[in-house]
Amino acid sequence: MTEKDIVTQIESYFKQQKQFGDVIYFDKLKNTVLKTALEATDIKSIKNVVIDAETDLFEPVKSWKHAESISELKILIEDCLNCPLGHTRTNFVFGSGNPNADIMIIGEAPGADEDMQGLPFVGRAGQLLTKILEAINLKREEVFICNILKCRPPQNRPPLPTEVEQCEPYLKKQIELIKPAFILALGLTAIDTLLKSKHKMGEMRGKVLNYHGIKMLVTYHPSALLRNPDWKKQTWDDVKLLRRMYDEYLKNK
After folding, report:
1. What's the start-to-end Cα distance of the chain, in Å?
2. For 58-115, what is each residue's pLDDT tens digit?
3. Does 139 score more than 70 pLDDT?
4. Least crowded by CB within 10 Å, which of 54, 70, 108, 160?
5. What residues are paired with 106 via a beta bridge?
6. pLDDT the model gives residue 15
7. β-bridge pairing 214-219 and 209-211
8. Count of C-beta atoms within a 10 Å radius of residue 74
9. What is the predicted pLDDT for the residue at 253?
10. Looking at residue 189, what is its pLDDT?
11. Which domains can be identified in the chain, with CATH numbers?
12. Choice among 25-39, 42-56, 111-125, 129-143 with the minimum mean pLDDT
């Protein structure tokens, strides 16, 4: 069997993805050459397929949609290539913090530092966010921090609608698993994505919004504060409101 023949057979198997959705099904592989070729393509990196070495079968495993924990979800989606950003990223930035957090903080997308380290909000804006949290007696480890997008857009441009469409289901699954009592949305991209409409920051700040039963506040993105320090006072008012609401929640929990 030539290399071209092997590639053709592999492609025919992968085309089944279109028919069966999130799971690729394989019949028992009797062709040793094909099995070797498939393994050589690092098919194990596709998290919805598992190679059973003992039975020589490719068996389907659960989709990311059925993940039962944050750690499991990360494993199932971190190799995502559903949009072009997956091919240009250095690291998939899943999010970090307490998997059982009462507070989720949601930003727009990873920047250069986040892309390099694979962690959210670690650059200058992230350092400012850490200080903001510390000012209301919260540590990063107590909350869960993530973004609408999990991969960095080139030159930190705003997310495209098609990118949001591909990535937002992952965010929704994160929210479903964490079950936060509060969401703090950072910036208009975050709030517009979550509420599915366009807003003005001045009209949204200071309001307690409802996101599928979760209390949500919105404030300026830390990167905007670096460009416009005058907005820090308003952000301070917003996070103090969050702290007051959180204290009341803890008192009645």
Report:
1. 66
2. 444 568 999 999 999 999 999 999 999 999 999 999 999 999 999 999 999 999 999 9
3. yes
4. 54
5. 146, 185
6. 57
7. antiparallel
8. 19
9. 81
10. 92
11. 3-60 (no CATH), 92-252 (3.40.470.10)
12. 42-56
Per the CB < 8 A criterion, the answer to whether 12 and 24 are in contact is no
Plot region of 187 (φ>0 → left; ψ -120 to 50 → alpha; else → beta): left
Residue 51 has pLDDT above 60, yes or no: no
Write the CA distances from 144 to 61, 158, 208, integer angstroms: 27, 22, 19
Q: Dihedral (C-alpha) 108, 114, 118, 122: value to the nearest 10 degrees? A: -100
Burial 170-204 (b: 16+ CB within 10 A, else e): bbebbbebbebbbbbbbbbbbbbbbbeeeeebeeb
Q: Name every residue whose Cβ is closer than 8 Å to that of residue 183 and which is 6 or more positions away in sequence.
A: 103, 104, 105, 106, 175, 194, 211, 214, 215, 216, 217
Backbone angles phi, psi at 98, to 5 degrees: -75, 120
CA dihedral of residues 94, 119, 234, 252 (deg, nearest 10): 60
Residue 143's pLDDT is 98
pLDDT at residue 7, rounded to an integer: 59
Q: pTM of the predicted model, to two decimals?
A: 0.77
